[in-house]
Amino acid sequence: MGTLGGAGLAAAAGGARTPGMEGERPASPARSSGLPAGGADGESPGGGAPFPGSSGSSAPLQGEVLDLDEDEDDLEVFSKDASLMDMNSFSPMMPTSPLSMINQIKFEDEPDLKDLFITVDEPESHVTTIETFITYRIITKTSRGEFDSSEFEVRRRYQDFLWLKGKLEETHPTLIIPPLPEKFIVKGMVERFNDDFIETRRKALQKFLNRIADHPTLTFNEDFKVFLTAQASELSSHKKQGPGLLSRMGQTVRAVASSMRGVKNRPEEFMEMNNFIEIFSQKINLIDKISQRIYKEEREYLDEMKEYGPIYILWSAPEEDLVDTLKDVASCIDKCCKATEKRMSGLSEALLPVVHEYVLYSEILMGVMKRRDQIQAELDSRVEALTYKKADTDLLTEEIGKLEDKVECANNALKADWERWKQNMQNDIKSAFTDMAEENIHYYEQCLATWESFLTSQTDLHLEEDSEDKP
Amino acid sequence: MEQAPLDPERQLQPAPIEPLGLPDSGLEATVGEEAEGARDAGSGVDTMTENNFGLKKIEISVSEAEKRTGRNAMNMQETYTAYLIETRSVEHTDGQSVLTDSLWRRYSEFELLRNYLLVYYPHVVVPPLPEKRAEFVWHKLSADNMDPDFVERRRIGLENFLLRIASHPILCRDKIFYLFLTQEGNWKETVNETGFQLKADSRLKALNATFRVKNPDKRFTELKHYSDELQSVISHLLRVRARVADRLYGVYKVHGNYGRVFSEWSAIEKEMGDGLQSAGHHMDVYASSIDDILEDEEHYADQLKEYLFYAEALRAVCRKHELMQYDLEMAAQDLASKKQQCEELATGTVRTFSLKGMTTKLFGQETPEQREARIKVLEEQINEGEQQLKSKNLEGREFVKNAWADIERFKEQKNRDLKEALISYAVMQISMCKKGIQVWTNAKECFSKM
Question: Which chain B residue shows the shortest CA-CA distance from A317?
Fold first, then answer.
């Protein structure tokens, strides 16, 4: 692999780390996500490290790679994102998390080899006689030669993303294609297009595209390029090429039938992989449920606390001597409420999306496993046919030869991608939970400070009163 | 020698009960600083009060609670809890305390004591008892009276009750109280023999019935409003606090699930395994820490509850004043009408309607002798009435003076105690935050090592 296209910040080092890997990406892919590197897109969990270019000036790292336009649009994007990176909307004095500092330093140490930057934003509603749907603006900035320009702006709808994913799966059946956000969320959805839903989806779509961009193989996929660059009409005509829907369906039916056979002859390492996937899937689903539940409980706690504080104010009215103390208690509770809100937003921005993405990943992995098994099954059925001399042996032998290559390719692709995926997963999970812990620490530190200052003020008053009493 | 039953209306400072012939040995119960259990946040008793009237200082503690079975008044089996009350007297010289009395009492006896005090000291804000049944309970806390946590909190509450009485300048001298601490058998009979139930003004119980009082002391009217407000706001506070506790419990406990899942997940992970496993352990620690935290908060709730019940005691005093004032006004009215009747009879003019007047008009005048007789009766009644009015007036003023003195004392106590309670609440929050920081710091370390 000559170029590590679309590589993340540690790509260069990564390439050297594990031999035979396709550009391993050990570090969090966050820094490669393009412009809004803040917590907003969920890729840099909670850290919110200021993107080097965020000040508006071309950081030296980018300068050599990108031809940044100095026009209003770019600056706006940058400055908007800089503000997004400051996640501490309640207490501006809070420092950025230590983790983000570390990431920043790392970023500056290693050369930036990323040459594809993608953002998804500006959801817009379109109403036609048949349907209502939302499109998202996708901006791609690149320095790659194979792209006709250095910047592209297109509009895509969810269907288009689905199409892309399908094509990628088709082309690379045993690669781990990143997950798309779900079509709809069944639970608790009032209307299909409420703001939170759209925002969550936007972030997930952005993540989807950037994960593809970071993938050593997928980043060069032709359909991906078309997706990023083609205008609407071009895209439609491109979509019409390739195997039609019917043939794809036919494949599926055959696949289901033969997948069972593939399982029997599954090599040991893939048995292990499958075992891992099964257990991982269970656990990540549980963690998803637990995390959602925590969020819910925190929300309900917050609601009660909001009612609790004001009662102390009510009480202070008929009390002459306790007015100040009671009001102070109320204000402490109010501050703790704000801290809780912040804790909750940290959870929903850092942890929940990551965990949920891996829930989706676990389904994908099972799909990948199946497809691998299918490919193997094809081979096995031909081998079987040869054994029983069911058809022309020469033809069969040739077919078998081809299929054996196919199986070997598929297995190798999966193996490599598996290691890469696992490494990423580890990093992402580690980041997400570390940030959750950090949020909790901040929460308790804030509350601690609040109550400690209350205590100090009470004891100070006491001393004042005492000294007044003394003759 | 039998004395006339004490008239609670006239008693401002009841003397020790003489009929039993027990001398007032001058043993005054006071609160020693070392009184057991007084240290807990719930009692809030002013242990600095040194009512050193007598020769010895007394320490009171309710040290144990025990489940008992017995037969009740209807000879049915019942289970109840008995509480051990220990009294120690403190020797001045060496500060050592010696156990002087120890006996068992059940909740109903405490109630009896309190009801007696209410009747004999209507001008005093009588300390309340801890609640009979668990109220304002958040879901995990048992509402069962037999639940050991409830019994424990009640034990503390009962001790607090006794300490409050012992540190009250007036109540501490009461004989029945002294006997409560010292005389196990027969105490109930002794109390009942005072006949206090008969003296109890049943109207006091009907706290909601209004008596049209023309000239109540404004301070008492204000105080009644205050006690209503206090009761309402503390009830509300306790209700919401219970809900907050519930929610907080939920947040902590759900984290415990992480522990289990992390542990199971760690089995398939080579590099992440250890970090996951140990982080999971910290999640368990976090989840279980809430139990102690909320246990502590119950003490805060108990402190508030005491003042919730104190509001009722305040209201009782206001009520008493109202009734006394009402009786006074009624008596004055009655006297005025009698005087008028007398005057009319004497002068022969009938200004007021009376049945007698009508019948005489219809059926003939009464004889001068009859009229004289009636006037004489009325004059006697008027005399009596004037005496009574005078004494009622005096009583009323005495009551107001003494009651207000106790109310001032109460107000200071309340402000001190509530402030202390609020401070201890802050202390609890601080402790909870510190625990939280520790657990999450540990967890973060584990996560970062994954």
Answer: B229
| Residue type at position B217 | D
Contact B251 A312 (CB under 8 A): no
- Give the model's pLDDT for residue B53: 35
The answer to whether A9 and A112 have CB atoms below 8 angstroms apart is: yes
What is the spatial distance between Cα A325 and Cα A465, in angstroms, rounded to a whole number?
14
pLDDT tens, residue by residue, B292-344? 999 999 999 999 999 999 999 999 999 899 889 988 998 999 899 888 888 88
- How far is it, in rounded angstroms, from Cα A354 to Cα A348? 10
| Residue A40 Cα, gap to closest chain B Cα (Å) | 22
pLDDT tens-digit map of B65-114: 888 888 877 888 888 889 999 998 877 667 677 888 899 999 999 999 99
Chain B residue numbers touching A440 (CB-CB < 8 A): 436, 440
Q: Which two tokens stand for residue A97?
A: 């998390």
Query: For A444, which residue in chain B has the nearest alpha carbon?
Result: B433
Please tell me the least confidently modeled range out of A167-181, B185-199, B427-441.
B185-199
Over residues B237-293, the pLDDT tens digits come to 999 999 999 999 999 999 999 999 999 999 999 888 999 999 999 999 999 999 999
**For A9-18, A136-145, A371-380, which range has the lowest pLDDT when averaged over its residues?**
A9-18
Instruction: Tell me the three state secondary structure of residue B84.
Output: strand
Q: Do A321 and B255 touch (CB under 8 A)?
A: no
| Per-residue tokens: A471 | 């003759």
Rounded-to-integer distance, Cα A406 and Cα A386, Å: 18
Cβ neighbours of A298 in B, within 8 Å? 251
Q: Please enumerate in sequence order all residues whose Cβ is within 8 A of that of A370, keeping only pairs 6 or more positions apart, or say none.
A: A255, A259
**Alpha carbon distance A223, A171 (integer Å):** 10
* Tokens (6 digits) for B207: 């706290």
User: Cβ contact (<8 Å) for A455 and B261?
Assistant: no
Chain B segment 276-295 residues within 8 A of A by beta carbon are 279
- For this complex, say whether ipTM is above 0.85: no
Q: Please indicate if any CB of chain A lies within 8 Å of the CB of B422.
A: yes
Asked if B271 is an interface residue toward chain A (Cβ–Cβ < 8 A), one would say: yes
Chain B residues closer than 8 Å to A305 by CB: 244
Percent share of chain B, pLDDT over 90: 49
Q: Do B243 and A304 touch (CB under 8 A)?
A: yes
| Residue A116: its H or E element | strand A116-127
How close does chain B come to A275, measured CA to CA in Å? Answer: 9
Taking only the tens place, the pLDDT of each residue in A314-334 is: 999 999 899 999 999 999 999
Nearest C-alpha in B relative to A303? B244
CB contact under 8 A, A287 and B261: yes
For the entire predicted model, the pTM comes to 0.75
Contacts of residue A26 in chain B, CB cutoff 8 Å?
Answer: none
Structure tokens at B143: 């509402």
Beta carbon pairs, A and B, within 8 Å? 139
| Nearest-angstrom CA–CA distance, B357 and B362 | 9
Outline where B167-217 has alpha helix (H): 175-182, 187-193, 196-199, 202-205
Long-range contacts of B2-7 (CB under 8 A, 24+ apart): B5/B194, B5/B195, B5/B198, B5/B199, B6/B120, B6/B194, B6/B195, B6/B199, B7/B199
Distance, in Å, from the CA atom of B231 to the CA atom of B365, rounded to the nearest integer, reads 61
Q: Which residues pair with A103 in a beta bridge?
A: none
Q: Considering only the beta carbons, identify the residue of B248, B279, B429 that sits closest to A451.
A: B429
Q: Which of B247, B434, B450 sits opposite A301 (nearest CB)?
A: B247
Q: Among all residues of chain A, which has the CA nearest to that of B238?
A: A308
Q: Which of B342, B330, B414 is nearest to B125 (CA)?
A: B414
Residue environment code for A374-401, b if the CB has 16+ CB neighbours within 10 A, otherwise e: bbbbbbbbbeebbeeeeeeeeebeebbe
Q: Give the SS3 label for residue A152.
A: strand
